[in-house]
Amino acid sequence: MNSTLAAPLSEIAHYYLTQVDVSSLNIFEKAWMSWYMWWDNPVLATGLMSFIMHEVVYFGRCVPWIIIDAMPYFRRWKLQPTKVPTAKDQWECTKLVLFSHFTVELPQIWLFHPIAEYLGMATYQLPFPGWKTMAWQIALFFMFEDAFHFVAHQALHYGPLYRNIHKIHHKYSAPFGLAAEYAHPAEVLILGTGTIGGPLLYCWFTRDLHIFTMYAWIVLRLFQAVDSHSGYDFPWSLNKFFPLWSGADHHDFHHMAFTNNYSTSFRYLDHIFGTDKKYHAYKARLRAAAAKDREALNQKLMAETEKEGQEAERIAEQSGYFGSKIAAKVQ
Ligand SMILES: [Zn+2]
Ligand SMILES: [Zn+2]
Question: What is the pTM of this model?
Answer without folding.
Answer: 0.90
